[in-house]
Design a protein that fits this description.
single chain, four-stranded antiparallel beta sheet, alpha/beta, 8 helices, globular, Rossmann fold
């Protein structure tokens, strides 16, 4: 089976079962939208897939080859955490060179969204500017599958639209699993949408499913009714 295959993920904290035999898959060319209420386990699931968090049980494979930890998935799975990962005392140009190979760095050095910040240190940027740089570094990485945890957090709306386009453009050759509290942005870019509910994954085929699962109120923005999932 081609693509990223995640199965039988179980995780509990103290006396609470957060994830119960979770299954999720992602192929190159897909943007999987992952929704869920606060505390449903979205970030926990992404960390387990990436390999930075242990689980009671997990099965991860890429193109039918099992991956048993962070080291084996290195270079194949990229993870954008909620928290900023940019070193505050280093200039953006050096950070790009640190995280990207020569070809990727050259692209980002000439990118309109990155150019204005190359000579600045990370701590001199606003939270939204840092987030934008982090997202771009991940998009232009060599990883085939990208896990994005709240990529739009704090970013100005004009830049969010550009990042959404970049995700969709790069999804031709990569697979994305994206979660964010701004569900409208997730619905707009996703080829498939799933939801974590009571520790399990539910397939979302329309907005009525989100209402039925208690994620959206019955009266939601009428414009969202036009969104369909493929």
């Amino acid at each position: 089976m081609s693509g990223l295959h995640v199965d039988s993920v179980r995780k509990h904290f103290r006396f609470r079962q957060v994830l119960s035999d979770v299954f999720i898959s992602c192929k190159k060319g897909e943007v999987i939208g992952l929704l869920g209420r606060n505390g449903s386990g979205k970030s926990t699931l992404l960390k387990i897939i990436f390999g930075s968090l242990a689980a009671e049980n997990r099965f991860i494979a890429i193109d039918d080859i099992p991956k048993n930890g962070l080291f084996e998935s290195r270079g194949l799975i990229g993870y954008l955490p909620q928290e900023s990962f940019l070193p505050g005392h280093i200039k953006i140009k050096s950070i790009v060179s640190l995280y990207c190979d020569r070809n990727q760095a050259a692209i980002l050095f000439d990118h309109d969204l990155v150019k204005p910040f190359l000579g600045k240190k990370s701590r001199e940027l606003s939270g939204g500017e840092r987030r934008m740089i982090e997202v771009l570094i991940m998009i232009y990485s060599t990883a085939s599958y990208l896990l994005f945890d709240e990529p739009f957090n704090g970013i100005a709306p004009i830049y969010i639209e550009k990042i959404k386009l970049l995700i969709q453009e790069h999804a031709v050759k990569k697979g994305f699993i994206v979660t964010d509290h701004d569900y409208a942005n997730i619905l707009a870019i996703s080829s498939r949408v799933i939801m974590l509910h009571d520790g399990a994954v539910k397939k979302i085929e329309g907005l009525n499913d989100l209402v039925d699962l208690g994620y959206l109120p019955e009266k939601y923005d009428i414009e969202l009714e036009k969104i369909t999932f493929t």
